[in-house]
């Protein structure tokens, strides 16, 4: 749109300049016609004979028509009106002087505008003649300024029509150029959006010579990113194996040892295992969070978790209600969603009296910024408001009678933060606790 604006601005400026130049040229041409009549009068004036005689016709019959707008006048400087000779068209009137009062401009050709006896606007040319002993004379010739105005108006009308058509043509061609010339960039943007949504893994399509290197570099960047992430997965897995195996051996050895030492070793080994799992999961999630093109369908993950926890807590005969649209997707790794939702559903199942509800709310925010809130409600005892932030801290457990390490909710909070999401706890409409997990994602387009 800026190109269209500047095109019209340039046309407007050009129109003003052209109209000004045309008016100047029209005035000069009109002055040249008047100067020809003035020179004719000067020739008649310098011819042999009495300079005060009748100067005769100047070659244009309009000077003979009363108040025709075409006038001439010849007289000595400061001569009384009865001594001034003029055309019959002036009808006894006088033309205004162009020389400023008290200023000696004798010998110059002066041009300007003035009023006729009938108040008509005139264009006047004034020149001086020095006849030596016969004295000085001032010759004034005038024509109607309407002719200049009409000529300029006709030119402006034609110029306006021409420039309007030219502006419309330029605007149309500019829009066509933007639409078709920038189409490769729009295609590239759509390709990146498809990758972001998880519909594609690479930038595909044919691009012009100037844009093709950019598309190739983007593909190279995506490939390099996947290689780095794959190496990170491998290294995290190797580290987990290297740490968990010795810990398992330590625990197994402690099982056969007598006394409090073995119990202490098992206790500390369990803490170490939980910490190792926590930091390894966090490192893996940090490497994977925000990966381009990674999307996970939410409904299958929640359904699988629901079936699992229904079996685990079969003795409680839990009624788990799920209301998740099939089109909902999470912009992240499936394993991370399972980790977050699983911990929250597990926590709800531990405390629920018999009912759990899992629902979702879409938070619109644009194609790339849409989010959703996952609600996990239970009908358990709930938590006081002052204790809700406390349980999100790592290793914090408010009830030691319940199994667990106290890392579940903190893991969920940390994972959500890696995806620029949040975890909040609130009172549930079922009477217990509500966990609100906000994550990037939304309905499938």
Automatic annotation (TrEMBL):
Keywords associated with the record: Kinase, Membrane, Phosphoprotein, Transferase, Transmembrane, Transmembrane helix, Two-component regulatory system
Highest taxon listed in the record's lineage: Bacteria
Record's keyword annotation contains DNA-binding: no
Pfam family membership, one: HATPase_c
EC numbers on record: 2.7.13.3
Principal EC category: transferase
Cross-referenced Gene3D superfamilies: 1.10.287.130, Histidine kinase-like ATPase, C-terminal domain
Cellular compartments annotated: Membrane
Name used for this protein in its record: histidine kinase
Record organism: Microvirga puerhi
Lineage: Bacteria, Pseudomonadati, Pseudomonadota, Alphaproteobacteria, Hyphomicrobiales
């Amino acid at each position: 749109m800026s190109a269209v604006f500047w095109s019209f601005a340039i046309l407007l400026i050009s129109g003003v300049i052209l109209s000004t130049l045309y008016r100047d040229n029209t005035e000069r041409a009109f002055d040249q016609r008047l100067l020809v009549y003035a020179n004719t009068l000067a020739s008649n004036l310098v011819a042999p004979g009495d300079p005060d005689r009748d100067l005769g016709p100047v070659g244009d019959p309009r000077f003979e028509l009363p108040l025709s707008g075409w006038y001439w006048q010849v007289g000595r400087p400061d001569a009384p009106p009865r001594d001034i000779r003029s055309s019959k068209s002036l009808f006894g009137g006088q033309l205004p002087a162009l020389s400023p009062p008290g200023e000696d401009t004798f010998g110059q050709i002066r041009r300007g505008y003035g009023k006729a006896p009938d108040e008509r606007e005139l264009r006047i040319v004034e020149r001086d003649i020095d006849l030596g002993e016969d004295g000085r004379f001032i010759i004034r010739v005038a024509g109607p300024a309407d002719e200049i105005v009409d000529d300029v108006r006709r030119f402006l009308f034609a110029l306006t029509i021409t420039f309007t058509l030219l502006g419309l043509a330029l605007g149309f061609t500019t829009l066509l150029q933007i639409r078709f010339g920038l189409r490769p960039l729009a295609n590239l943007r759509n390709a990146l959006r498809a990758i972001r949504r998880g519909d594609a893994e690479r930038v595909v399509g044919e691009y012009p010579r100037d844009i093709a290197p950019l598309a190739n570099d983007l593909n190279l960047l995506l490939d390099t990113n996947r290689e780095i992430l794959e190496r990170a997965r491998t290294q995290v897995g190797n580290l987990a194996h290297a740490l968990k195996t010795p810990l398992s051996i330590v625990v197994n050895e402690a099982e056969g040892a007598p006394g409090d030492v073995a119990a202490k070793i098992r206790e500390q080994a369990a803490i170490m295992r939980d910490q190792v799992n926590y930091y390894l999961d966090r490192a893996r999630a940090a490497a994977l969070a925000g990966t381009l093109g990674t999307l996970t369908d939410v409904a299958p993950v929640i359904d699988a978790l629901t079936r699992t926890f229904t079996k685990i807590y079969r003795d409680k005969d839990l009624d788990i209600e799920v209301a998740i649209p099939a089109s909902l997707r999470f912009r992240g790794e499936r394993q991370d969603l399972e980790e977050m939702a699983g911990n929250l559903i597990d926590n709800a199942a531990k405390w629920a009296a018999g009912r759990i509800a899992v629902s979702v709310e879409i938070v619109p925010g644009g194609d790339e910024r849409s989010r959703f809130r996952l609600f996990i409600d239970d009908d358990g005892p709930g938590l006081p408001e002052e204790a809700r932030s406390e349980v999100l801290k790592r290793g914090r457990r408010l009830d030691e009678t319940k199994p667990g390490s106290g890392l579940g909710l903190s893991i969920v909070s940390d994972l959500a933060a890696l995806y620029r999401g949040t975890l909040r706890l609130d009172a549930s409409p079922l009477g217990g606790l509500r966990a609100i997990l906000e994550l990037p994602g939304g309905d499938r387009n």
